[in-house]
Amino acid sequence: MKYDVAVIGSGPGGYVAAIRCAQLGFKTAIIERYSVLGGTCLNVGCIPSKALLDSSEHYHAAKEKFKTHGIELTGLKINMPQMIARKSEVVVENNKGIEFLMKKNKIDVYRGHGSFVNKNLIRIAAADGTSQEIETERAIIATGSKPIVPEQFGYDKKRVITSTEALNIEKVPGSMLIIGGGVIGLELGSVYARLGTEVHVVEYLDRIIAGMDADCSRELMKSLKSLGMQFHLRHAVTEVKAGKSKVNVKAESRDDASKTMTWDVDYCLVAIGRKPYTDNLGLENIGLTTDEKGRIPVNAHLETAVPGIYAIGDVIQGAMLAHKAEEEGVFVAETIAGQKPHIHYNLIPGVVYTWPEVASVGSTEEQLKEAGTPYKAGKFPFRALGRSRASMDTDGMVKVLAHKDTDEILGVHIVGARAADLIAEGVALMEFRASAEDAARMSHAHPTYAEAFKEACLAATANRPIHL
């Protein structure tokens, strides 16, 4: 078979790229090495983790808040196998949805490991040992990433685990240690902390979610501590030894190597980041090499050094985010079609799906200080919001950063209920280069969580929040 475009990888970047290519009239194929479509995000990442986060939030609310709401329960308990089964059902439904979209858009699906024979020929090796080849005029590499697990940590998928295995634990652990205070570790840590697990987080840096605004780090850590999570910042894990039913973990202080800590826990979750998945793609056959981080270099059009070969998502530079990969998939498809698409990378939001959620877009206060950009900041706490009091979701704040001279919004940082949805308002306004006053003068429905954004903009533009 001969195609206009072949996409290797069916995660959010890959399947969205394939759909947009098909919409633009290109004969399109998509290649997936696993038996189901959707990549890491749908199968062992974004979707299943959010399913477990929601389930654990419901349990925690029933245990800690229902009585205050006048709802009394007896015999409340966790059915972990059912919780995992529901998560798996959500994944299956999404798998079916992507299969439907491939058929709807007349995209040919090939199952097997794709690798380049040359720039126009891709070999697909199936799980049963057979292989076939397809021709393509252009190709898009969208193979995603996989967890980083140092060899010395003894990753055995039983007691020393990654996020993949953490999504399928069918008995609530008594204890868990998480190496890494980033998004993945904190999300999964919060799941198990709500269910009653003793959770320790060991982080090498001096704060959690270090890539986000420092105020977000502080607010989230305060909230997670209230769940019982324990944090050990500025510590480096030096040894991980897995036994049959426990894991022994040792760490030392960055400030004083003689100060060490030791834990014996049921599970050790390694969550120190992810690396591009470019193994055995035959890149050497087409003259492509990766950089020191394993990423594929691309130009402004996301085209590699080989004309007609593009790369998107986690295999190239930038944040490893599903929605970033989706935007790049559309960008490449439209570029191939001769259009002039654009991605404003500074306005791709980042989200932590703990509860409260954390969401951020644009510059952090630390970045503005480092760049010497004159700015003003406006903050509004959720505890001062009527909607938050009504729902008992009073943790967190909205922080708006605006240019000191022009009042243009430069960054929005939210910790609080539904922050993942609220951030879209900040993105939209920043795309149109709105000022803090523009947002402050927009009518926001009452009572809503979104009013906190308006109040923060009032604080930023004129230091005159109404409800604080």
Give a structural overview.
- With 468 residues, the chain is α/β, with parallel strands linked by helices.
- The chain folds into three domains: 2-147 and 275-345, FAD/NAD(P)-binding domain; 151-272, FAD/NAD(P)-binding domain (3-Layer(bba) Sandwich); 356-462, Enolase-like, domain 1, CATH 3.30.390.
- It has helices at residues 12-23, 39-44, 46-64, 80-104, 163-166, 183-195, 214-226, 322-336, 365-371, 386-391, 419-431, 436-440, 451-462, and strands at 2-8, 28-32, 108-111, 113-118, 121-125, 131-141, 145-147, 160-161, 175-179, 198-203, 230-233, 235-242, 247-253, 260-265, 267-270, 274-276, 309-311, 350-352, 357-362, 375-381, 397-403, 409-416.
- Helix 3 packs parallel to helix 6 (183-195).
- It is globular, with a radius of gyration of 24 Å.
- The model has no long low-confidence stretch (mean pLDDT 97).
Describe the structure concisely.
With 468 residues, the protein is an alpha/beta fold. It has helices at residues 12-23, 39-44, 46-64, 80-104, 163-166, 183-195, 214-226, 322-336, 365-371, 386-391, 419-431, 436-440, 451-462; strands at residues 2-8, 28-32, 108-111, 113-118, 121-125, 131-141, 145-147, 160-161, 175-179, 198-203, 230-233, 235-242, 247-253, 260-265, 267-270, 274-276, 309-311, 350-352, 357-362, 375-381, 397-403, 409-416. The radius of gyration is 24 Å and the shape is globular.
